[in-house]
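=== Discrete structure encoding ===
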Amino acid sequence: MLDLGRSLVASVSRAPDALALVDGDIRLTYGEWYGQISALTQGLADMGLRQGDRIVTALQNNRAAASVHWACQLAGIAIVPVNWRATPDELGFYVANSDARSIIFDASSEKSVREAEGVTGLPKIAYGIAVEGATSFDDIVMQSAPDATPQASAEDCSVMLYTSGTTARPKGVPRRHRAERAGAVAHVAQNMMPMGDTTLGVMPLYHTMGVRSLLAMTLLNGTFVCLPRFSCADALNLIAKERIGSLYLVPTLYHDLIDHPDFERTDLSSVKRLGFAGASMTEGLLKRINAAFRPDLFVNHYGSSEVYTFSIEQDAVAKPGSAGKAGLNQHLRVVAMGAGDPDAVLPRGEEGEIIATLSGDEAFEGYWKRPEANEKSLCRGWFFTGDCGHFDADGDLFVTGRVDDMIITGGENVSPVEVESCLSMHPGVAECAVVGLPDDRWGKIVTAFIKRRGDVTAEELDLHCRTSALANFKRPRRIVFVSDLPKSPVGKLLRRELVAGNFTPEHEQATAK
């Protein structure tokens, strides 16, 4: 199987004059982009990076993020893309845990890079800003360099994504070139994307959806249109201006687009294919989006960082809530909850835990330095997803929630434990519990139930979260004061009771803006 570096070289050879990348006023053909990527590959080597090393990137979706991704594939370096909104503590963890030998950043993450432990001595590349001690990205890519020669094999590590688990610290998900390429090829096929397609590069390149969009476009000699940070006005403008053919977004972004004042007057005629993933979509929102875009294809993609595709529903509107059937490279089962046995298969209609084969071409092989996570999630060639669901009479999969309590809000994973830990540090909080409640825009909204001490207000708690080390997207958007939190006879917190509405409010709920 081709590695990704050779895949890029093949695409450049196939159509060197095709438009590859758009980032603001920058427009690069495949030939032009390959020249810059080759210079960047040489620049990484000049910094002392070698095949098998790892490099952390904390970048918004821009030319640098896309270019570094491909330079790493050519050089045989494993890229470790992380959230540009990461706090200094989080960034320091990513660097230390991944054994990174360099870091690339832009203005969005500069502050965390300056303050994170373990980053000071690393070689750095800065994009779009001048930072003392850091090499300029533009200076590197403007140098002349020979065409980069692919150094990796299909068995080498391509990327390590970080995904949150039930504990506060994220888990590293190393993925080989062959798995990444297989996921991209399946993405092309399952979304029926044509050669020369164009997509909006808005899903972050630290997220499996963003990476897949980038790889798919390159395999198709398509155009990846960068949107560094989501803005409805900018997204709508780019859809019309660049004639976007395929959109692949989390439900929250679709919600915001169709509610924006510019939506009705935007030319959307180029958009033929819609896909969503990362969170559930309510039936009402599904129908509104379909009526607004009238796409030829509307795909619900259910997957994960570990195994890109679990299942695909290519007609999401026809069967709301259905995640469809197993993808091209996948085999799924629903097994008895808590059994930990891949052979404890349940009949159709019965809810259990969804598991996926690790024999599929898109699958990872285990978490980075997390044997306890492997023991929990991997068993006899199967990946236990941590999701609950069932197959209906037609054999279509319905995902009904999480085995644990992870909150997926706007496509981002939020650990309740981490948020609770932050809230518990406020002297006005006696007890707290955090859950995700259904929301049309976010899929789930982070909601904190507080048994307070004294007369602390929602505004004070929101300020506490804003000024803490908690990343902004993790802070509660809704705060409910309760007289008591539901618990089992042995004192275990029952989050499911809060989700079901079984609690006693102290008074009317308050909302943090």
Remarks:
- The chain has a mean pLDDT of 93.
- The radius of gyration is 23 Å.
- The CA atoms of residues 434 and 448 lie 4 Å apart.
- The first helix runs from residue 4 to 14.
